[in-house]
Amino acid sequence: MDATQDILIAFGANLPLAGELPEVTLRKAIAELPAEGVEIVEKSRLFITPCFPEGAGPDYVNGALRCRTEKTPVEILSILHKVEERFGRKRPMAAGRWAGRTLDLDLIAVGNHVLPDRATVGQWIDLPISDQMTLAPEQLILPHPRIQDRAFVLVPLCEVAAGWKHPILGKSVAELCAQLPKMAKNKVVAV
User: Residue ranges of the 7,8-dihydro-6-hydroxymethylpterin-pyrophosphokinase domain (predicted)?
Assistant: First the structure.
Protein backbone atom coordinates (compact mmCIF):
# COMPACT_ATOMS: atom_id res chain seq x y z
CA MET A 1 0.00 0.00 0.00
CA ASP A 2 1.18 3.55 -0.76
CA ALA A 3 2.01 5.20 2.60
CA THR A 4 1.12 8.62 1.20
CA GLN A 5 -2.56 7.77 0.77
CA ASP A 6 -4.94 9.51 3.12
CA ILE A 7 -6.81 7.26 5.51
CA LEU A 8 -10.04 8.81 6.74
CA ILE A 9 -11.49 7.71 10.06
CA ALA A 10 -14.68 8.94 11.70
CA PHE A 11 -14.91 8.54 15.46
CA GLY A 12 -17.64 8.90 18.03
CA ALA A 13 -19.06 7.88 21.37
CA ASN A 14 -22.21 8.58 23.33
CA LEU A 15 -21.89 6.37 26.43
CA PRO A 16 -19.54 6.89 29.38
CA LEU A 17 -16.82 4.35 30.09
CA ALA A 18 -15.76 3.68 33.68
CA GLY A 19 -17.36 6.98 34.71
CA GLU A 20 -15.50 9.03 32.07
CA LEU A 21 -17.27 11.23 29.55
CA PRO A 22 -17.27 10.15 25.89
CA GLU A 23 -14.85 12.93 24.88
CA VAL A 24 -12.28 11.58 27.38
CA THR A 25 -12.63 8.07 25.94
CA LEU A 26 -12.24 9.45 22.40
CA ARG A 27 -9.04 11.33 23.24
CA LYS A 28 -7.54 8.25 24.93
CA ALA A 29 -8.49 5.93 22.06
CA ILE A 30 -7.11 8.26 19.38
CA ALA A 31 -3.86 8.55 21.34
CA GLU A 32 -3.40 4.77 20.94
CA LEU A 33 -3.42 4.78 17.13
CA PRO A 34 0.23 5.85 16.57
CA ALA A 35 1.46 2.92 18.69
CA GLU A 36 -0.53 0.67 16.31
CA GLY A 37 1.26 2.10 13.26
CA VAL A 38 -1.38 4.65 12.27
CA GLU A 39 0.11 8.16 12.03
CA ILE A 40 -2.39 10.92 12.78
CA VAL A 41 -1.87 13.73 10.28
CA GLU A 42 -4.81 15.89 11.27
CA LYS A 43 -7.71 15.74 13.74
CA SER A 44 -10.97 17.68 13.56
CA ARG A 45 -12.54 19.48 16.44
CA LEU A 46 -15.06 17.53 18.49
CA PHE A 47 -18.74 17.95 17.61
CA ILE A 48 -21.95 17.19 19.48
CA THR A 49 -24.38 15.41 17.19
CA PRO A 50 -27.80 13.82 17.66
CA CYS A 51 -27.86 10.07 18.11
CA PHE A 52 -28.55 8.23 14.85
CA PRO A 53 -31.32 7.54 14.28
CA GLU A 54 -32.39 10.67 16.14
CA GLY A 55 -33.95 10.09 19.54
CA ALA A 56 -32.49 6.58 19.92
CA GLY A 57 -30.15 7.61 22.75
CA PRO A 58 -27.87 10.30 24.16
CA ASP A 59 -26.13 12.72 21.81
CA TYR A 60 -22.79 11.66 20.37
CA VAL A 61 -19.43 13.34 20.46
CA ASN A 62 -18.02 12.92 16.93
CA GLY A 63 -14.97 13.89 14.94
CA ALA A 64 -12.69 12.80 12.12
CA LEU A 65 -9.05 11.95 11.50
CA ARG A 66 -6.81 12.06 8.47
CA CYS A 67 -4.07 9.48 8.95
CA ARG A 68 -1.31 7.65 7.12
CA THR A 69 0.05 4.12 7.43
CA GLU A 70 1.69 1.40 5.38
CA LYS A 71 -0.95 -1.09 6.54
CA THR A 72 -3.58 -2.55 4.23
CA PRO A 73 -7.25 -1.55 4.56
CA VAL A 74 -8.06 -4.88 6.28
CA GLU A 75 -5.18 -4.39 8.73
CA ILE A 76 -6.37 -0.84 9.49
CA LEU A 77 -9.89 -2.10 10.17
CA SER A 78 -8.48 -4.77 12.48
CA ILE A 79 -6.54 -2.12 14.42
CA LEU A 80 -9.66 0.03 14.79
CA HIS A 81 -11.66 -2.95 16.08
CA LYS A 82 -8.88 -3.83 18.54
CA VAL A 83 -8.82 -0.27 19.93
CA GLU A 84 -12.63 -0.23 20.14
CA GLU A 85 -12.55 -3.45 22.14
CA ARG A 86 -10.03 -1.97 24.59
CA PHE A 87 -12.56 0.80 25.22
CA GLY A 88 -15.57 -1.38 25.87
CA ARG A 89 -16.95 -1.99 22.36
CA LYS A 90 -18.38 -5.45 21.83
CA ARG A 91 -19.12 -7.01 18.44
CA PRO A 92 -21.74 -7.91 17.47
CA MET A 93 -23.78 -5.31 19.32
CA ALA A 94 -26.40 -7.15 21.40
CA ALA A 95 -28.42 -3.95 21.76
CA GLY A 96 -28.79 -3.48 17.99
CA ARG A 97 -27.10 -2.13 14.88
CA TRP A 98 -27.11 1.57 15.86
CA ALA A 99 -27.13 1.17 19.64
CA GLY A 100 -25.22 3.58 21.87
CA ARG A 101 -21.53 2.89 22.32
CA THR A 102 -18.49 3.79 24.35
CA LEU A 103 -16.37 4.05 21.18
CA ASP A 104 -16.94 3.88 17.45
CA LEU A 105 -14.01 4.05 15.00
CA ASP A 106 -15.21 3.85 11.39
CA LEU A 107 -12.84 3.41 8.48
CA ILE A 108 -14.31 5.82 5.93
CA ALA A 109 -11.75 5.67 3.13
CA VAL A 110 -8.24 4.54 2.27
CA GLY A 111 -7.01 6.70 -0.61
CA ASN A 112 -9.06 5.87 -3.68
CA HIS A 113 -9.51 2.19 -2.81
CA VAL A 114 -12.88 0.70 -3.77
CA LEU A 115 -13.45 -2.55 -1.88
CA PRO A 116 -14.44 -5.19 -2.62
CA ASP A 117 -15.52 -3.80 -6.03
CA ARG A 118 -17.58 -0.94 -7.52
CA ALA A 119 -20.75 -3.03 -7.95
CA THR A 120 -20.81 -4.19 -4.32
CA VAL A 121 -20.08 -0.71 -2.97
CA GLY A 122 -22.84 0.65 -5.23
CA GLN A 123 -25.33 -1.88 -3.84
CA TRP A 124 -24.52 -0.79 -0.27
CA ILE A 125 -24.72 2.91 -1.20
CA ASP A 126 -28.20 2.35 -2.67
CA LEU A 127 -29.45 0.16 0.21
CA PRO A 128 -32.89 1.32 1.44
CA ILE A 129 -32.95 2.76 4.98
CA SER A 130 -35.12 -0.13 6.20
CA ASP A 131 -32.37 -2.57 5.18
CA GLN A 132 -29.62 -0.34 6.57
CA MET A 133 -31.17 -0.71 10.00
CA THR A 134 -30.89 -4.50 9.98
CA LEU A 135 -28.14 -5.49 7.54
CA ALA A 136 -24.39 -5.15 7.97
CA PRO A 137 -21.82 -6.15 5.38
CA GLU A 138 -19.75 -9.24 6.11
CA GLN A 139 -16.72 -7.72 4.41
CA LEU A 140 -14.97 -4.36 4.37
CA ILE A 141 -16.74 -1.86 2.13
CA LEU A 142 -14.69 1.16 1.00
CA PRO A 143 -15.42 3.93 0.81
CA HIS A 144 -17.91 3.70 3.64
CA PRO A 145 -21.31 3.40 1.92
CA ARG A 146 -23.11 5.95 4.14
CA ILE A 147 -20.58 8.82 4.04
CA GLN A 148 -22.71 10.92 1.66
CA ASP A 149 -25.75 10.68 3.97
CA ARG A 150 -24.24 11.62 7.33
CA ALA A 151 -23.63 15.15 8.51
CA PHE A 152 -21.98 13.81 11.66
CA VAL A 153 -19.25 12.33 9.41
CA LEU A 154 -19.02 14.95 6.65
CA VAL A 155 -18.91 18.10 8.81
CA PRO A 156 -15.86 16.91 10.81
CA LEU A 157 -14.27 15.46 7.65
CA CYS A 158 -14.47 18.90 6.04
CA GLU A 159 -11.94 20.07 8.62
CA VAL A 160 -9.35 17.40 7.77
CA ALA A 161 -10.04 16.22 4.21
CA ALA A 162 -12.40 18.63 2.43
CA GLY A 163 -10.77 17.89 -0.93
CA TRP A 164 -10.81 14.09 -0.75
CA LYS A 165 -12.86 12.89 -3.72
CA HIS A 166 -15.21 9.93 -3.46
CA PRO A 167 -13.99 7.47 -6.13
CA ILE A 168 -17.51 6.34 -7.06
CA LEU A 169 -19.67 9.42 -6.49
CA GLY A 170 -17.01 11.70 -8.01
CA LYS A 171 -17.55 14.46 -5.43
CA SER A 172 -15.29 15.87 -2.74
CA VAL A 173 -16.08 15.77 0.97
CA ALA A 174 -16.86 19.50 0.75
CA GLU A 175 -19.25 18.94 -2.17
CA LEU A 176 -20.99 16.02 -0.44
CA CYS A 177 -21.36 18.12 2.71
CA ALA A 178 -22.78 21.05 0.72
CA GLN A 179 -25.48 18.70 -0.66
CA LEU A 180 -26.75 17.79 2.81
CA PRO A 181 -29.90 19.50 4.07
CA LYS A 182 -29.03 22.64 6.04
CA MET A 183 -31.06 21.34 9.00
CA ALA A 184 -28.86 18.22 9.22
CA LYS A 185 -25.64 20.26 9.14
CA ASN A 186 -26.96 22.68 11.78
CA LYS A 187 -27.38 19.77 14.22
CA VAL A 188 -23.60 19.12 14.15
CA VAL A 189 -22.29 21.62 16.72
CA ALA A 190 -18.61 22.15 17.57
CA VAL A 191 -17.76 21.63 21.23
Answer: 9-161
What's the predicted TM-score (pTM) here?
0.92
Number of domains in the chain: 1
* Domain boundaries, position 109: 7-190
Length of the chain: 191
Whole-angstrom distance, CA of residue 64 vs CA of residue 45: 8
User: Which residue would you say has higher pLDDT here, 129 or 26?
Assistant: 26
Give me the amino acid identity at 62. N
DSSP string, 60-99: EEEEEEEEE-SS-HHHHHHHHHHHHHHTT--SS-TT-TT-
CB-count burial class (<10 Å; 0-12, 13-18, 19+) for 97: exposed
